[in-house]
Structures are given as structure tokens and as C-alpha cells.
Design goal:
Blueprint (H helix, E strand, L loop, with lengths): L3 H6 L1 H10 L7 H37 L4 H32 L19 E6 L12 H8 L4 H7 L9 H20 L4 E3 L4 E3 H7 L11 E2 L4 E3 L4 H5 L6 E3 L5 E10 L18 E11 L4 H18 L4 E5 L11 E9 L4 E10 L3 H6 L2 E3 L11 E2 L1 E9 L2 H9 L7 E2 L13 E2 L5
Parallel strand pairs: 2-7, 6-12
Antiparallel strand pairs: 1-9, 3-5, 4-5, 7-8, 8-14, 9-10, 10-11, 11-14, 12-13, 15-16
Helix pairs in contact: 3-4, 5-12
Length: 430
């Protein structure tokens, strides 16, 4: 979340930043509540000082055996005023907190301003394959190779769920095991296997709540949420903690299933693996010093790109515009893999720098090693995360890029050890 002091002192800047996001957010109510809270706080400070002075006079009067009744009566009146004002101040604090939780992060000055149409392709990698036959879509390939049974998944649970089968299930497992090995062995991440359920505080900490509650799966009896991404439990590992600067940076990677209701997906492509309610993902999460966070973002993107390069999938890196970045992000790159069967670029990773936005919500701080005089004893860390990478769209892109004229599929070389040495998926009905 944003610092109320920053909002107060930079109201025009914040308003302009929100407008860049396509929001007409009126800060008037927030600033009015903040002004009233500060008035009450100042008055409370005066009354508390008055009460302390009265206590001292009463103590002295006791020693001198003077009449205490006037001082006690005055102190009781002051205490009653304090109780009343503390209640009022608390109500204003609550109002301020609720409003601030709905204000998104300030977009970084380097990203394009405007709607998603202003997104900028930063670079591309690889060449789109030239087919001498009409490529099939991943939906057709899954049916032909008996990798996924969408109909039975729908029977078991509902539409837009996945039932992997046989070699299709093994390919899914091969992908996330390959990614975990890559990030832990070559990129320096520590593997985490977190809970798939989190509490409300965790969802608020990373910014999913309150804004996106309708898009989440919630257990009504326990007020727990199925995670939409491993970013939520992994970031909250350090909620309410103070790290030493020597611990930074911290790099974590985690495989989890992810659950999203996709409540706002009406009118979007939902066939096959394009927009499912449960999917697997390997996540990359960083906790870093503020002065290094944008260098760390570029490294994070490179780590995710390496996955696609080793899979030899043509992809592009897209810098998102202000009207397309997520609620919590200050800057975000999407990685999009090309799927020839659908003739579409599929988003397979989003890599974001949240700066201190999530750290303020989750209260994650660190102690600078060489703190300068007059500086705070602790500062908020910067958090980053990225998909390293997400399935199921990567799965779809692999099927469509590696298909052969007879409907079989070559297995990417880097996955062969994870597939028991198999180099080909061919028709095999169970």
C-alpha cells in the first residue's frame, strides 16, 4: 500500500498516477479523514501531557498531604476526554486503512502510459517454426494423443478444469520438475513448498484483497482462500518480520497449483488451456534492498526467459503499460510464447517489481547495516515476483510447436531426462 504521508504530500502526483492507470480516484475523502485524524492525534497528545502533569501534581500533593479532590476530578475529566477522542481517532484510522487498501501502486516512470494497446514489445527470441502442414491446436493434439480429457474433468468438477492422463500427466510433471531444478541449481533460488490455503491477512498482504475477492476461491467456514499464485504464501513467509540487511537478497522458488475463479473472463478465450480455474506454476519471489530492486527485476525476467530458451519456444518480452499492470505492481514484463496452432502469443509469465507496496501491507522490513544519522532504524524491503514459468499455456505452446505431420509430438530435448528417456509422444489410447 502507499504511505499516507506520501499521499498527503504528493496528492497531485498520486492522482495523476491513478489517472495513468485509467482510474478517476478521488482522494478528497481520504485526505479529509487524514486531516481529522491528525487533529485528533494532536489534541490527544495535549490531553495525555495534561494527564501526566496532573498525575505528577497528585503525587506531589500526596507527599504534602494537600486536598486531592480538585486534581482528581480534573484528571478524571481529562481521562474521559482521552477515551472519547481515542475512539474517534480509531474510527478515522479504520476509514483511512480501508480506503488505502483500495489504492493501487504508483506506476514506474519508465513504463508506457496508456491502455493495454500501449504495451511495448521489448525484445523477441527465436524464430516461428515454418510448417509444411497445417498445424493443429493444442486442443486437437490433446485429444489425438490422449493427453488431457477435458470432458471428464468437467464431469468431475466443472468447466475449465483439467484432467491430465498418462504421458500427458508425466509431461506436466516433467515441466515443473525441470523448472525447479533450473532455478535452484543455476539461478540461486531456495525451493519452498508452501500451503495451498492461506488466510485473509496473507491475501491482503500481497494485494489480492480486498480488490479481487470475487476472483478467489474461499472456504466460507474457515475464511481461508485457495491460493491464486505461490506469490501469496511465499511473500507472507516474512510478514511482520524484520530482516537483517545481510540476509538480503532472498530468492525463493515454489511449485504450486493455482486456483482462480476467472470471474471477469466473460468474452475472453476460454477453450482448452487458455483460461482454466486450476493450473500449475513455478513461482519466483525476491526480497531485496530498495536500491537494487530494478536490477533484480531484469535478472528475474532473464531467469524466466531461460526456461523458454531451453524449451526452444519462440517468445517475446512485453513491457506493460500503466493501464495493464496489476494492482500491486510498479513495473511489469510479460513473457509471451508463440503457439502456431492457434496463431497466438500466449502469456506464460508476468515478472513484477512491487517496490515497497506489498511490504507495507505485509509489514516486511529490514535493518540497514550502515544506517546514517537521522535515518529510520528499519526500512521496508522491496518485493518482486515472476512466473518461472506458468502452465498450462506453456504446455499448450510446447504441444503446438513440437507437433509432427502425423499428429505425434517431439519431446523438447531438455525434458527427455524427465520423461524417462522418451523422445516422442505418439497416439496411445488408454
Amino acid at each position: 500500500m502507499l504511505d499516507i504521508k506520501f499521499i498527503r504530500e504528493n496528492a497531485d502526483k498520486v492522482t495523476a498516477a491513478l489517472k495513468d492507470r485509467g482510474l478517476n480516484f478521488d482522494l478528497a475523502e481520504l485526505l479529509k479523514n487524514d486531516a481529522r485524524r491528525r487533529e485528533l492525534t494532536a489534541r490527544l497528545d495535549e490531553l495525555r501531557a495534561k494527564k501526566n502533569a496532573a498525575n505528577q501534581r497528585i503525587t506531589q500533593a500526596l507527599k504534602e498531604k494537600k486536598d486531592l479532590m480538585p486534581e482528581i476530578a480534573a484528571m478524571k475529566e481529562t481521562a474521559a476526554q482521552i477515551d472519547s477522542l481515542e475512539k474517534d481517532a480509531g474510527e478515522f484510522e479504520e476509514k483511512i486503512a480501508k480506503i488505502i487498501l483500495t489504492i493501487p501502486n504508483i506506476p514506474h516512470e519508465s513504463i508506457p502510459r496508456g491502455a493495454p494497446s500501449a504495451n511495448k514489445v521489448v525484445r523477441t527470441w527465436g524464430s516461428q517454426r515454418a510448417f509444411d502442414f497445417k498445424p493443429l491446436s493444442h486442443i486437437e493434439l490433446c485429444a489425438h494423443l490422449d493427453l488431457i480429457d477435458f470432458a471428464r474433468a468437467s464431469k468431475i468438477t466443472g468447466s475449465n478444469f483439467i484432467l491430465f492422463k498418462g504421458q500427458g500427466a508425466r509431461l506436466e510433471r516433467a515441466l515443473y520438475n525441470f523448472m525447479l531444478d533450473l532455478h535452484t541449481k543455476e539461478h540461486g533460488y531456495t525451493e519452498i513448498f508452501p500451503p495451498f490455503l492461506v488466510n485473509r491477512a496473507s491475501m491482503i498482504g500481497t494485494g489480492q484483497l480486498p480488490k479481487l475477492e470475487e476472483d478467489m476461491y474461499r472456504l466460507k467456514d474457515d475464511d481461508l482462500f485457495l491460493i491464486p499464485t505461490a506469490e501469496v504464501p511465499v511473500t507472507n513467509i516474512f510478514r511482520d518480520d524484520i530482516l537483517d540487511e545481510g540476509q538480503l537478497p532472498v530468492y525463493y522458488t515454489a511449485y504450486t497449483a493455482c486456483f482462480r475463479r476467472e470471474a471477469g473472463s466473460y468474452g475472453k478465450e476460454t477453450r482448452g488451456l487458455m483460461r482454466v480455474h486450476q493450473f500449475d506454476k513455478v513461482e519466483l519471489v525476491k526480497f531485496v534492498r530498495p536500491d537494487t530492486s530494478y536490477d533484480e527485476l531484469e535478472k528475474l525476467v532473464a531467469n524466466a526467459e531461460r526456461v523458454l530458451q531451453l524449451l526452444r519456444l519462440p517468445y517475446r518480452v512485453v513491457m506493460l503499460a500503466t493501464g495493464d499492470i496489476s494492482f500491486s505492481a510498479a513495473k511489469c514484463y510479460d513473457l509471451e510464447a508463440y503457439a502456431p496452432g492457434m496463431d497466438k502469443w500466449l502469456e506464460v509469465s508476468s515478472c513484477s517489481n512491487f517496490e515497497s507496496f506489498q511490504a507495507r501491507r505485509a509489514n516486511i522490513k529490514y535493518k540497514p547495516a550502515n544506517r546514517q544519522t537521522g535515518k529510520p532504524a528499519t526500512e521496508y524491503v522491496h518485493t518482486l515476483n515472476g512466473s518461472g514459468v506458468a502452465l498450462a499455456r506453456t504446455y499448450a505452446a510446447i504441444l503446438e510447436n513440437y507437433q509432427r505431420p502425423d499428429g505425434s509430438m517431439e519431446i523438447p530435448e531438455v525434458l527427455v531426462p524427465y520423461m524417462g528417456g522418451s523422445t516422442l509422444l505418439a497416439t496411445r489410447k488408454s
